[in-house]
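Input sequence (538 aa), recorded before submission:
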Amino acid sequence: MWSCHSSFTTLVVGVFMVYLVHTCWVMYGIVYTRPCAADGNCIQPYLARRPKLQLSVYTTTRTYLGAGNNVDLVLNVEDFDVESRFERTVNVSVPKKTRNNGTLYAYVFVHHAGVPPWDDMKQVHVMSPLTTYMVPKPEEVSLLTGESAAQQLEAEKRPTSALDEPVSHWRPKLSLNMMVDDFVFDGSSLPADVHRYMKMVELGETVHYLPILFIDQLSYRVKDLMVINRSSTELPLTVTYDRISLGRLRFWIHMQDAVFSLQHFGFSEKDADEVKGIFVDTNLYFLVLTFVVATFHLLFDFLAFKNDISFWRNKKSMMGMSTRAVLWRCFSTVVIFLFLLDEQTSLLVLFPAGIGAAIELWKVKKALKISVLWRGLRPKFQFGAHSESERRTEEYDMQAMKYLLYVLYPLCIGGAIYSLLNIKYKSWYSWLINSFVNGVYAFGFLFMLPQLFVNYKMKSVAHLPWKAFTYKAFNTFIDDVFAFIITMPTSHRLACFRDDVVFLVYLYQRWLYPVDKSRVNEFGESYEEQPPRKPHSD
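Predicted structure, token format:
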């Protein structure tokens, strides 16, 4: 059995390493592009001729643009320097059609100075919607004082189904990039990702590609969106421009396509926004480091999950295990899952949390030795008997929990009352779930202490799933490194460090109570082979 488990783990680690090497090779192929040889079919950059350019931004409600269309010029940069970064905020007139839950588009042109964009044969342009449709977030109110008179009047004017219908939201950012590297492409092996953004012109006997203009769609965040009301005649728009290298451009195109593909698989814009947050305002090299570390995090998560399931599937006795700690972990996981569900969190977070909650419920069934007997359509629950050693463990568990609750109850109740008086919530259910979650994050680590007390009383740690603990410890230390880098709630950030303290105590107890490796554990395994005894001679 031991060799079988070890072989499977080796296989998983081997597949992981092959995947990591393959991914690094693919990433290298994205950021590095082979330039054209001297005798090849070369495509020269038009920017190398140093033309005098102009940047113009127009808005319209139409998906196509022409000189005769109803367009508004919102930004005009006459002496456009492609090497210089800039940021400008302009006020955009919102047409009546857009205010009535319509759409508004931005057209960005780079053309020769002094020539209208639709008369310039060497102009390049990109189009991006300035609006998007989303279901508005429910307003939060004080549960004790209720809604104000203005909020009640506004709610009465809205139809009953209005809260469930998507409405037009304003995107207050427009991020532009241009590839300004004097890179000579090989016409016979153009990268497919960049090719769709390229426009070619023939000047004499040489083919040139016009400036590659790119709109960074990953910079749009859901938290920045503004609801467009009927009274919104003007809205602010911040236009930013920066140069971009060819390698970063290709990487950004692939990441942008990956995020958009999530929406084709049924993810909402809010779900895709969680993925966008990984890439926005992040250094490219740090992004690659984050990917590698996150991949190792995934590997350790899988190995911890495998060993934890194997440990509990084969466990027959709860001797030395704190039943109350198991119940608390189950309660905490279910509460966090309900909290994420109430906050309409991304499926990327919600789905793993739901699986974790289901596993913790299964552990409770194993810990309490619950069996379900069906009598027709009515289930009957039976609890198994406990041995003398399990009853002794239960006494230690109750003793530790008795004094712990004296501290825990006042803190949790006090925190719930404080939040009710000072914080606004969507509903009473939302307040209840938030109070439970705050208690879990703030004082949840206290419920790990009964297991430490049981270990102290029994002077043993052999009953714990140390393999799963080890893999979880690696992940905990990885979480520590990124706790102050990746955006997360402060309570969750502090929770990363509180687990370290308890795990260090577990390590101290393992050193203090060494495991007898010659003893056969609950799986029937022994880590040291005993020398065979010589038969007695009669």
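Checked by second reader. The chain is about 45% helix and 20% strand.
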